[in-house]
Specification:
Layout (H helix, E strand, L loop, with lengths): L1 E9 L3 H8 L4 H5 L4 E6 L13 E6 L2 E12 L3 E7 L4 E14 L2 E12 L4 H21 L3
Antiparallel strand pairs: 1-7, 2-3, 3-4, 4-5, 5-6, 6-7
Length: about 140
Amino acid sequence: MNSITIQKEFHAPVEQVFELLSKHATYNVAFAPVQVVRVKDSADPERPDGVGSVRRMGFGPVKPLQEQIIVLELNERIEYKIIKNPLVKHHLGIIQFQPVDDAKTLVTYTIELQARAPFVSKLILAQLKAAIKMGFSKLAKTV
């Protein structure tokens, strides 16, 4: 299984960083020009971007990637998987939050990926790693 791990320290408390990264709309800022829109709410009305929610990603009206939140542990962990994608056998994203102190949070983002065409996985992961590093740097400036 191919995977990448990115770590970024945010100069904000874990609660603030978790709140930021648990909202689908945040990824519009982090990964612009890619657009992210929630297409299904979670069952929890207090947290519509929570477990069971689905987001679509893409450009303009074409948003072929769908991700579903499968784990949300408040201020600790978010997991999602890609659903309904014929090109991807397995894609799991895990975002972990660890307080460094009262004003700093370490975010560890791991993505496991297995594409249907074996040689494609490493290429996709390299692109994702670069995009996430850049996106996290943008978001870190907003908190």
